[in-house]
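Final report, section 2: Outcomes. Of the targets proposed, Serine hydroxymethyltransferase is the one most frequently requested by collaborating groups, and we therefore present its record in full.
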Amino acid sequence: MTARRHPALAAADPALAELVAAEERLQADTLRLIPSENYVSAAVLEASGTVLQNKYSEGYPGRRYYEGQQNIDRIEALAVERAKGLFGVDHANVQPYSGSPANLAVYLAFAQPGDTVMGMALPMGGHLTHGWGVSATGSWFRGVQYGVSAQTGLIDYDAVRDLALAERPKIIFCGGTALPRTIDFAAFAEIAREAGSVLVADVAHIAGLIAGGAHPSPVPYADVVSTTTHKTLRGPRGAMLMCREEHAKAIDKAVFPGLQGGPHNQTTAGIAVALQEAAQPSFTAYAHAVVANAKALAAELLARGFDLVSGGTDNHLILIDLTGQDVPGKVAAKALDRAGIVVNYNTVPFDPRKPFDPSGIRIGTPSLTSRGLTPGHMPQVAEWIARAVTAARTADESALAVVRKEVADLMAQYPAPGLPL
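The predicted structure is given below as tokens.
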């Protein structure tokens, strides 16, 4: 299989080729529930592995520092126009290497070192680059954080407003990595207006849901929209910054030459393909199916006695507090992995445990939806999770092995996009 799938790689480096083949098999026969992961199409994979890798292209279309850009300029312009059309924005920059560099460009565009910035606290569901202390953004800027209500697990917008008016941050980030509920972008925009702040919506997790109409868009409200291009958008590992025309020059200058050299042209091509795919009616159906699966899975988990942060989900993501199951999140995640169910351990709001050994696990439905699973499959998925968590608590490896086989049997019936198996 390795030689047929990757003949040049198999001939040049058999050891690496076998590792790639092993990863293909692993992605094929496991149930992938990490909400930030997905399967890209064969077309995205092909675009990302082209001879565009060979070309250096510092600058922007029509304004490069290298010659021979006749095709590269058209590829990047195509990706930009597709992003603008899909999200309805004035300006798009498709060059950021990933989500964290994209967010760093926002700081460079709108703030000076030492300025106050505001974002959701990491343990509450925010992202490292929203001013959290261990990140460069928390070292170079004065980060202040908001959280969620201990009673509801939801953002308290009155508390956010009070903090913003007291601190007057240069930048306010909304969005995060473990938020199972809809973000009220209009409320954040009003708070940012009152505080005199630039509002940045980090929609890395929900960009595909927004593109497919399954989540409200921040575009009418935010000054800047930052997103990765993978996750729910089903593109390659890259990022985009989108903004109003008045901020276009500042954003472009911050990305290049502020933070980066030449863009990764092969990734730009993959982004262009993913944006084209996301503009199709089938992607709209996909985005809504992701949410339907998440809601169905949340209901099944609740019925089995699991404690879900905020009581459920509005999007693709479910955050499970395992305190009541008497098993730490890390122990559960590793047991689930042995059972063929791939998740990540995660802190939950007000978690008494340490981040590397937290109380929760984070799961999501983008990948399983890409394989064609429906709400009708979610009772089985919830049952597998329950059985694996019980096995983790009782150290029952034979029970995990049984689940592993059942998972592989179901996955064989639903081939993953882009995979050979």
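The longest helix spans residues 281-303.
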